[in-house]
Amino acid sequence: MGRSEELFERAKRVIPGGVNSPVRAFGSVGLTPRFISRADRQKIYDADGRAYTDYVGSWGPMILGHNHPVVREAVERAVKDGLSFGAATEHEVEMAELVCGAVPSVELVRMVNSGTEAVMSAVRAARGFTDRDKLVKFAGCYHGHSDAMLVKAGSGVMTAGVPDSAGVPASCARDTLTAAYNDLESVELLFAENPGRIAAVIVEPVAANMGVVEPAGGFLKGLRRLCDENGAALIFDEVITGFRLAFGGAQERYGVEADLVTYGKIIGAGMPVGAYGGRREIMERVAPVGSVYQAGTLSGNPVAMAAGLAQLRYLREHPEVYAHIESLGRRLRAGLREAAPGCAVTGAGSLCCLFFTPGPVVDYTTAKAADTARFARYFRFLLDRGIYTAPSQFEALFLSDAHTEGDVDALAACIADFFRTEKN
Length: 424
Ligand code: PMP
Known about the structure:
Helices cover 39% and strands 14% of the residues. The chain is of the alpha/beta class and 424 residues long.
């Protein structure tokens, strides 16, 4: 038995399913998870000392690659001054100035500790501002694990084939209405059926939790129009896309401004961070100035802020990072199209996805058509050859600045091998 297997046996005795987040479990691909002991640049190393080229990147935050010296040194400096004060710090001001400076629609921003918290809080702000209860989300979009968001969610919920979570009171889920991604008519219909009752529409501007699904031309602009016509807030969940698809995120890339925006892991560079922000008149409703209550002992933690600031400043000062990861993304998608006949290849910028279905994949229903048993065989083939990807069909391949053309060519070649072996 390898060290990962040993650790997993121990873990299962004391942690539900042996993991602290279900997306880390390898159950759906018929394996035990690899326990990771360290990571550097585009490589991660498991407890048995095996090296893998990593296309998960801690699910998004490691856009510069693992253990980037600029981030590590900023953390080392911050740690020397103490870990947490539960009081205001200069780091937080600098972080807020940076985010507001990067994203025109964000006039005020509040730090929290995860994407889940960011979304939960943004939704509360939207409800408080509009004095309405109902929300529209899209099937297959994942917005963290708060009660109102676990309705037709993507990511681990989709992988496990659990339609909705137990433990979510019907009263919480009742106000969450679901529309179909890329289908403006489905949103229009919900507005027509619930006049004056919808507080917000929340969307992943590029859906990255049902595999990767790009917004069709006009979809995001159409949502903007529908929200304006109906007095609802448009919330972009940029936990994955923020500072990744461009420095100003999906809003910059697609030229659409949201009223509220949520961020996560990428602004902590791997430390636990989230944030929500947006229009001043909405964010001014948040405590202590307004009556929407939201708080956090560790929010704006100085070490997390130091890590995030180092990464975001690096990105601001090195636009060539975006040029590099964009070109890697294009190269990988072209390679995959050649390597994997009969499969849909999707993506945007440094996010890619290979769907085991001919496609086109445009929403939850078409993503769900993917052959997950075949995906599991593909996943195991890659892992055996030192390539670490998310253990689910319904997640993205994440590229970082540390990846090279050689890496993505090797990935495409390995996938081509898989398709050849499958045939024989
Ligand atoms: N929103 C989106 C779009 C996400 O992808 C995720 C997690 N991957 C979340 C929210 C929740 O973030 P967290 O896991 O940090 O709570």
